[in-house]
Write a structure and sequence with these properties.
413 residues; seven-stranded antiparallel β-sheet; 13 strands; globular
C-alpha cells in the first residue's frame, strides 16, 4: 500500500508520491487507528447493510480472524477477502458486499488492484535476470540505460533501485489533492518520461546511504527488465512468473482502467467543503502511473500461491533469493525519520507476535492488499480490503485487524 506511514509491511502508496514509513507511527496506529473515518450522510447510509462472514478450512485462531472482518461494510471498508495458511491449518474468509447498490455478498474469488505488491514480481524477475548473467546488481543502472539515466546518477546501482536506496527523488503524477487525482484518473503516463522528470532533480541523498521508499526505483527497474530481456515488462513477468505458476487470474491492465472479470467495487471517501462525506466508486481508474511499481491485478488465491512458491525458492532460485530477505547495512537509515531501514529487494520485514514476518503491502484507490509470511511458511497471509481510505495517514483499521489476527501485535527487537 503511496502516501502514508502504515502499520505492518509499510507503505500503502499513492503512485510516485513521497512516502514516509515509521515503526513509531505504526505502533501508534495500532492504538489510535481503530476509530472509523467520520461518516457524513452518504457513509451512514452505506454502513447499514451487513453481510455474513463466510469461512472454510478453519484454523485454531478462526474466531479472531472472523471477528477481524465482521460487520462490513462500514465506514473504513466495504469488503474484505482473507486467506491464512500454515502448519496449524488454513482459514479463508470474506465479508462485505460486491457493491453498495446491490448489497450482494462480496465475491470471495474477486479480482482486485494489488498496488505495490507488484514490486515483488518486478524484483523477482530482476533477480532471475541477475541469475542468468543479464543483470548485475552491483553495476550502475546507467550502464544499461545510458540514454535515460543522466551522469548525475551514474553511481546508482541496480540493487539500490530495488532496495530503495538509490536517492532518486519521487515525482508527482496526479495532483496534490484527492479531487485532482480523481480528475486525472484516466491520464496516461510514460515510464521513461517519469524517470526523466525524476532524474532532472537533485538526488535526495547519496546512493546507498539512506533508504526512501518510493515507486521510482521500480519504474527504472521495469525499464531495465525491458532493455536486457528484449520484451515488454508485462510480457516478461507473465512469461517468467504468471504462466509457470498458473496464475490465471493475475494480469497487467496496461492502459485499460477497468478490472476485467469478477471484482468487488472499490470506494473512496471524498470530503466536501461542508465536512460531509461522500463514498464514490473508484473501481475504474487508470494505473499507468504505477506500472512496474504497482499496476498488477490479482486474487487472494493467486497471491497466496505466488507467496508460497517465492519463499520456497521456486521463483528466484539459489543465493539470489537471499537478496529478498536481506536489509541494507546497519548504517543505512530511513530518509527523513532516521529510523531503521525496513526494505530489502522487493519485501519488507516486521516483528509480529514475536515472529519475523516478511511481506509487502499495496494500495490503489479503493483497494488495500498485502502478502506476508514467516520465512519457514509456518504462517502466511494474503488479504484484499476494499478500503475507503486507501491513501489515508495510517493503516486501514480493517486491514490492521486482519494482520493482528493472523500474526499478533507488533513487537520490538
Amino acid at each position: 500500500m503511496e502516501s502514508s506511514s502504515s502499520y505492518g509491511f509499510h507503505a500503502q502508496e499513492a503512485p510516485d508520491m513521497n512516502t514516509r514509513t515509521s515503526r513509531t507511527v505504526a505502533a501508534a496506529a495500532l492504538v489510535l487507528g481503530m476509530a472509523a473515518v467520520p461518516a457524513g450522510p452518504a457513509l451512514a447510509a452505506a454502513s447499514a447493510p451487513v453481510s455474513a462472514v463466510t469461512a472454510i478450512q478453519e484454523a485454531p485462531d478462526a474466531e479472531v480472524l472472523r471477528a477481524a472482518i465482521a460487520g462490513l461494510p462500514k465506514a473504513d471498508a466495504t469488503a474484505a477477502l482473507v486467506r491464512v495458511a500454515g502448519t496449524d491449518g488454513n482459514w479463508r474468509g470474506s465479508s462485505g458486499v460486491h457493491d453498495l447498490e446491490s448489497d450482494r455478498p462480496a465475491d470471495r474469488d474477486g479480482r482486485f488492484r494489488a498496488g505495490s505488491v507488484t514490486k515483488v514480481f518486478t524484483a523477482a524477475v530482476a533477480l532471475q535476470l541477475a541469475g542468468e548473467g543479464k543483470l548485475d546488481l552491483n553495476r550502475p543502472a546507467r550502464h544499461y540505460l545510458p540514454e535515460l539515466i543522466p551522469a548525475s546518477y551514474r553511481k546508482v546501482t541496480v540493487r539500490q533501485l530495488l532496495n530503495h536506496t538509490s536517492g532518486i527523488p519521487s515525482v508527482g503524477s496526479g495532483g496534490d489533492t484527492l479531487d485532482e487525482w480523481y480528475a486525472h484518473r484516466f491520464d496516461l503516463h510514460d515510464a521513461a518520461d517519469t524517470v526523466r522528470e525524476a532524474t532532472s532533480h537533485e538526488p535526495d541523498f547519496a546512493p546507498g546511504t539512506q533508504q526512501h521508499y518510493a515507486n521510482i526505483g521500480y519504474t527504472v527497474a521495469g525499464l531495465l527488465i525491458e532493455k536486457v530481456a528484449g520484451h515488454p515488462y508485462a510480457a516478461e513477468v507473465s512469461r517468467r512468473i504468471l504462466e509457470p505458476l498458473h496464475l490465471k487470474d493475475t494480469y497487467f491492465p496496461g492502459t485499460d482502467p477497468t478490472i476485467r472479470g469478477p471484482y468487488n467495487h472499490g470506494y473512496q471517501l471524498f470530503t466536501g467543503t461542508d465536512g460531509t462525506g461522500e463514498l464514490r466508486d473508484v473501481s475504474v481508474w487508470g494505473a499507468t502511473d504505477a506500472w512496474a511499481a504497482g499496476d498488477l491485478i490479482s486474487t487472494t488465491a493467486d497471491l497466496e500461491h505466488f507467496t508460497r512458491a517465492l519463499f520456497r525458492g521456486q521463483v528466484v532460485r539459489g543465493p539470489l533469493l537471499e537478496e529478498m530477505f536481506t536489509l541494507p547495512g546497519a548504517s543505512v537509515h530511513e530518509y527523513g525519520t532516521g529510523g531503521p531501514a525496513a526494505y530489502s529487494v522487493g519485501l519488507s520485514v516486521m516483528k509480529l507476535g514475536g515472529r519475523e514476518v516478511w511481506g509487502k503491502t499495496g494500495g490503489r484507490w479503493g483497494y488495500n492488499t498485502a502478502i506476508a509470511a514467516t520465512r519457514d511458511l509456518s504462517r502466511t497471509l494474503v488479504y484484499s480490503v476494499n478500503a475507503t481510505d486507501a491513501k489515508g495517514e495510517g493503516m486501514n483499521p480493517t486491514a490492521m485487524n486482519i494482520v493482528v489476527a493472523a500474526f499478533g501485535a507488533p513487537s520490538s527487537g
